[in-house]
Design brief:
This protein is mainly β and 292 residues long. It is built from seven helices and 15 strands. The chain has a single domain, classed as Outer membrane phospholipase (ompla), Chain C. The strands form two sheets. Strands 1-2-3-4-5-6-7-8-9-10-11-15 form a twelve-stranded antiparallel beta barrel. A two-stranded antiparallel ribbon has the order 13-14. The chain is globular, with a radius of gyration of 20 Å.
Length: 292
C-alpha cells in the first residue's frame, strides 16, 4: 500500500518530479519542432504536431486515468517567449480502483465516485538570460464533477491532495518559477519553486482574512541534475521538497521517499527523443543537429 502511495503521488502531479525545461522543454514556453517526440520513464509522451502546437499524454497511466495536454505558441510578451497550455484528465477510473478494502485501498470502499474531469490552463513565458534560462508559469485548475462528491473522497498525501481536492473545492491556482543553467559539457541543472492554492472564497465571506481566502497551500521546490549523452538520450536525478497544508495540519516531505527504509533515496529518470520520419524518408543527422 505504501508503494502505491508513492506511485499515486507521482501520477497526480501535472508537473512531475522530473519535469524539465530548456532543450527538453516540457515546462518552458518552447514548442517541440514539427514531428519531434520526447518521452521518459516519469514523463509524458510529447509530440510536435506543428511548428506552433504540441500535444502530450502520460502513456503509463492513460488507461486508468485518461489525460491529454495541448501547448500552443503565443505572441511574444515584453521580450519573453510565450505559450499557453490546456490540460485534461479523467481520474474517476483510477480512483475507483483505489476505492477498496485491504492492500491498495486508499479511499473508502463505500464511496460512489461520480465522473470527474480536471481542466488546467497555464500561461507560460520564458527568456534566456545572461547566466540562465528563466520560465514563469501562472494558471488555474478546475474540477468538474458530474454528480455528488463527498468531502471524504480525498487522499492526504504530498503532491496528491492539492491536485485531487480541486474536485471538492471547484478550482485552484498554480504558479511557479523555473531556472535552468548549463554547467560542464553535457551537464545542466534545474531549480524551481511552485505554489498551489485551493482558495476558500466561501469561507472568506464570513471571515475576510487572507488565510481563509487562500485556503490550503502546497509549496514545492525541486533540484535536478541532468547529463545528456546526445540529443536523443538524457539521464536526470534529483529531489523534490514539499511543504504543504493539509486538513490535519502542515507537513514537509522530501521526495522520492521509500517507506521500506524510512528515508529519502535518489531516483533516476531516463528520457529519449527523436524525430518521426515519413514513409521512405531518411533522417539526416547533421541537418537535425544544426536545427538544435
Amino acid at each position: 500500500m505504501k508503494y502505491l502511495q508513492i506511485i499515486l503521488a507521482l501520477t497526480f502531479s501535472s508537473n512531475l518530479i522530473f519535469s524539465m525545461s530548456g532543450s527538453w522543454n516540457a515546462n518552458s514556453a518552447s514548442i517541440l519542432e514539427n514531428k519531434k517526440w520526447e518521452v521518459g520513464l516519469f514523463q509524458p509522451f510529447r509530440y510536435g504536431y506543428s511548428e506552433k502546437v504540441e500535444y502530450s499524454v502520460h502513456p503509463i497511466v492513460f488507461f486508468v486515468m485518461p489525460n491529454m495536454s495541448i501547448k500552443k505558441e503565443e505572441k511574444n510578451w515584453k521580450g519573453f517567449n510565450a505559450a499557453s497550455s490546456l490540460s485534461f484528465r479523467y481520474p474517476t477510473p483510477l480512483l475507483n480502483i483505489l476505492s477498496r478494502k485491504g492492500i491498495g485501498g486508499l479511499l473508502d470502499p463505500n464511496l460512489n465516485l461520480p465522473p470527474m474531469l480536471g481542466v488546467s490552463y497555464s500561461w507560460i513565458i520564458s527568456k534566456p538570460l545572461k547566466y540562465f534560462d528563466l520560465t514563469i508559469t501562472n494558471g488555474l485548475d478546475f474540477g468538474l464533477v458530474y454528480g455528488s462528491l463527498k468531502k471524504s473522497s480525498t487522499i492526504d498525501l504530498p503532491l496528491v491532495f492539492h491536485r485531487l481536492s480541486i474536485f471538492n473545492n471547484g478550482w485552484g491556482y498554480h504558479g511557479g518559477i523555473d531556472i535552468q543553467k548549463p554547467l560542464l559539457k553535457n551537464f545542466s541543472v534545474l531549480i524551481d519553486l511552485d505554489l498551489l492554492l485551493l482558495p476558500n472564497l466561501d469561507k472568506a465571506q464570513s471571515n475576510p482574512s487572507f488565510e481563509k481566502m487562500r485556503g490550503n497551500y502546497s509549496l514545492e521546490h525541486k533540484f535536478l541534475l541532468s547529463w545528456s549523452k546526445s540529443q536523443k538520450f538524457r539521464v536526470t536525478t534529483g529531489y523534490k521538497l514539499v511543504h504543504a497544508e493539509f486538513p490535519f495540519g502542515e507537513q514537509t516531505r522530501l521526495l522520492p521517499y521509500m517507506p521500506l527504509i524510512e528515508k529519502w533515496v535518489p531516483i533516476v529518470e531516463l528520457q529519449w527523443s527523436g524525430i518521426k520520419r515519413g514513409k521512405g524518408q531518411k533522417l539526416d543527422p547533421e541537418k537535425w543537429l544544426k536545427k538544435k
